[in-house]
Write a structure and sequence with these properties.
Elements: H1 7-11, E1 15-19, E2 25-36, E3 41-48, E4 62-68, E5 75-78, H2 83-101
Antiparallel strand pairs: 1-2, 2-3, 3-4, 4-5
Amino acid sequence: MAHEHNHEEELHVQHITVIDENGNEQLCEVIHVHESPEFGKSYVFYSMVGAEEDEDGSVEIFVSSFVPSENGEDGELTPIETEAEWDMVEDVLNALEDENEE
């Protein structure tokens, strides 16, 4: 069975800048954006650019809810607040991992 890739999609990498609790800026690569009608929010899955892979070849993935600004060009990342949101995020992450294994 042949496996097809959308190379145009793979070439379009989106980056965001995250400011940590110490005020340091960190460039991050957006892995996935998920719109949740259930919670009325968007969630962004991202990893640090240049992050070291662990022994399994994986990098740490972070997830935050996302509130776009009025101009739609940037916005604010906010922490995930409830256990129900974490459960949904975990389901999305598992589906993304399954998709990448195929």
